[in-house]
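Tutorial, part two.
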Amino acid sequence: MKKKFRVTYNAPVTLTFAIMCVVILLLNDFLLGKHLIPAIFTAPGRIGSNGGFNYKSGLDYFRLFLHILGHTDWNHLLGNFAFILLLGPLMEERYGSKMVLLMFVVTAFVTGVINVCLIPRPLLGASGVVFMLIILASITTLDKNVIPLTFIFVVAIYLGRELINAPKAENISTVAHIAGGLCGSMFGFMVAPKAKKTGKKDSEKKNTEKSTESEKDSTVIGTLEI
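Running the prediction step on this input gives:
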């Protein structure tokens, strides 16, 4: 028999996030005259600056989270999702979709608040999420008091590149990148992988099955002896 191939929605958070970003950019570019993203899907700048945070506006509080859904153009979006579509499913498999969703939300909020406090320009895009996933994916030893050497290398390369490019990156928030990376390292060392919990359950299940089988065997042997 021939095997049937089917398409699965394997990473619901990552895929839903990607679809939402694409839909928002399509609406912004082709239906709403490029007014949608600046109005809703950008984090405000520093209080007092042009386009700065207005504490009286309820929308500005939502924009602290929604800015990761907005992108400047298609190159900006594709550049981010080259990493998100690669790393997101791996992290969902490792930590679970609900936890990855929480990581996205926390990273968005942290980068949005930092932008309001420090940066005069509005912030948009999922770059903070990208660097969170990069740092998170580089951490492999989570159950011991050990810092992986690969983690140190990734952090050194990442921070070095950000500091070198900071004076040249006029339209890129280096602070948001660094904040996203810090969120990734925090999640990596504080959140237990789902795989380990599942592994324990599987082992307990196997032990239960073995004990049940042994009990059945002893019952059969006892019956034969009688």
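Residues 194-225 form the longest helix (32 residues). In part three we will examine how such features are distributed along the chain.
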